Structures are given as C-alpha cells and as structure tokens.
Amino acid sequence: MKKTLKKALALTLASVMALSLTACGSGSGSGSSDNGGSGDSGDGNVTLKFSWWGGDARHEATEAAIAAFMQKYPNITVEPEYGAWTGWEEKQALAIQGGNAADVMQINWNWITSYSGNGKNFVDLNQYSDVLDLTQFDESVLEQCKVGDALMAVPIALTGRVFYWNKTTFDEIGCPIPTDKDSLLAAGAAFQAYGEDYYPLAMNELDRTIFLVYYLESVYGKPWVENGELQYSAEEIQEGLDFITELENAHVIPTMSVLQGDMADSLDKNAKWIDGKYAGIYEWDSSAGKFQQAIVESTTKPNQEFVVGDFIDFGDYDGGFTKISMAFAVSANSEHPKEAAMLINFLLNEDEGIEILGTERGIPCSAAASALLEEKEIGDALVKEANAKVIEHCKFPLDPYFEHNDLKANPDGVYYKVMGKLSAGDETSAEAAAELIEGIEECYSNYQ
Description:
seven-stranded mixed beta sheet; D-Maltodextrin-Binding Protein, domain 2; two-stranded antiparallel sheet; globular; 19 helices; alpha+beta
C-alpha cells in the first residue's frame, strides 16, 4: 500500500513540475469537478495551508491527492501541515484562537462546538455550494455540522468502536474469541494460565470510558447523555466501573500500572501488542490499520492474523454509538475560502481525489465517494467490514461534549484521572462514579 502511494505521489509531483514549466504564470485554473461544483479557481496565484493528523499511510495518500489537485489547478499551491494526534488538538486550538489556523483543517466533530460554537471561527460552507457539492451528503449528517443554519464543516466519514482480535494468539492458546460476558471472563483465565503477561484485551483510560458507555447502554438501553444531561445514576455508573475492575481482577485487561510500565506511547507501538501478548482492542473502525500493520510486520512474530470481532453481548440492548469521525472545515481567517472549498470538494467528491484517498479516513459520507469505492473495489476490506458492523449495530447518539478536551485530554482530562485512580485503587468505584459525574456536569455547565 505504502509503495503504491509513494509511486503515485512521485508521478503526480513530476506531472506538476512539468506542467509548471509550460504553464508558469498562466494564473488560470479551469475545469469542472466530476461530481458537482463549478471548478473555476479564478485568476491569480493562490496559496492554501492544509492541516491534518494521522499515520504514515494517511499522510502519503493526502500528499498524493494534494499533488493531483495542484496539477488540476496550477495557480493554487497547497502547503501541507500534518503530524500525529498527540498534542495536535492543543496546537490547533491555539491556531484557531490566534486567528492563524490553516485554510483547510481536518477537525474532530466536537471541535465545532468547542472552537466555533458561536459560528464565527469556521466559514459557513453553504456559501460555497457552487464549488462544493453538498448534495452528496445526507442532510441529517450535515445538520450535525451546523451552528444555527451555518455549515461549519463537511463530514468525512461516520465511525464507531468495534472489537478487534489477534486470532493467531487466541488459536495458540486454544481459546475462542469472546462473544459475551462469560466467554470474555473465561478468556482471561485461559490467557493467565498460558502466561502472566498475556491478556485477551487491553484498554487505556479513554478506551475504558468508551467501553463503560458501551456496557451501560447494552444493559440499560439508554444514551449516555441526552439534551445535555447525563442519563445514568451514580449507582448505575458504579456498576459499570465495578465491571471494569472485575475485568482487571479476572486477568481480562491489564491494570493501568502494567500498561504504563510497558513504556509505549500508544497501544499499537506496545511490544506486548506487537508480539501478540495483548490480543484484543476496542477501537474505532477507521483506526485499525496501524494495529494490524504492527502485528503483521512484527520482527519477532510476523504475519499474525488480525480480525474484526462481533459485538460482545452484555445485555438486552445493542450498546455503542456512532459519530462523525472527522470533518473538513475552512478557517474564518482564510483569505481564499472559495479555493479552500474547492480543495475539499476535490478530496471528497471528485473521482481522482476519492481514488487516491480510498478509506484512509474511513468509509466516506459522500455518496459519490462511497459509490466509486464500491464500484472499483478500492479501500481496506477490514475497514469496510468493521464499518458495516458498526453501522448495523450501534444506534445510540453521541453528544459532542463527550469528547471535550476537559474530559478526554491525556493526562489531565476527567476520564484519565478517574480511570487511573480506579485502577490504582486510589478511589472506590463509588468515589470514581461521583468524580466522573461531577466532571461531566462541570464541563457541560462551563461550555453549553
């Protein structure tokens, strides 16, 4: 995959250089988009900054798409800015607040409420529907990106969490992949008997919080937050936290101190994941590639098999939520919002951009993109399988404040503090439930 993308990038960059030698100073970018939009870039040279986060595969695909866009519009130069997720939101928040954000920004869905809840920090993309084909997106999904009537961003994909397993390890131990509470607990016993440093599932603090919501929704059948109010009592939340402690005690998941002792920045870089000792994750459907790559390319145990699991049955309801995984927005300080909207349209709605990006940002919301990827069988089969399971199973909504930085930031967010104290035994489940409720309610009172 990486070699193909690098080759595509090299070819498109070469084409851009050749074109610039013959058309330098033309200042004209004509042509029409394949799936809507006028495609007229206007006169004069334009420079756009484009920021996003992700892994190497996303970076390579996006750079290749940028090169193709610049070839189509030789008067538009796109300057990329990208990196890993750690520290990215804090950096972009400062840029937004300082008025020097990139023209086109890949944003998390909750950034709309966090950083443009007043509808003023991102451009209303409704104003550029002549070059950005909004008819490709379901209106109900677009509504989730609006402040009032202003469209703050265009959704890229819908996502949700699903269980993934290292089938190679489960087969070695002779343990079936878990499908319900009993088989999950039985897996913990089987893995411990095989080796003290083997666990069927590993979750960090944020993973545990999302898993807590999944468990409670499965048991009680009500959303975590609705209309800005937490729907679960202290006793119900305590029950969910007790279950997480039970998973630790039953050797299903390692304690937070064990995970911290592994000295890894993220689970996909953890040697125990790479070597197959941690054999399960509860992860976004669009983010599984790096976990799969880590075990397939392991130097000590190569070509381990990574599979999508079924949702674990904890109750009478189908727990779990879907959300807009990310979106493209144009910052209000952009001097070229029309050209920025054209870039977004190229990436999401036009054949060339769609084919280059594939499923690097998940299964697209754009009808044109979804149809083309299906027709040409483009994209990661694992991501497609996982996303189909998520869309079929997960029906609960997600409130945008669930992912507010005050709650999910590492290490100072409420989720990290509560789950860390609970795992360390510094708080009882009752105390942890009370702190979690207090932190959530304080966040809502501060920002709603």
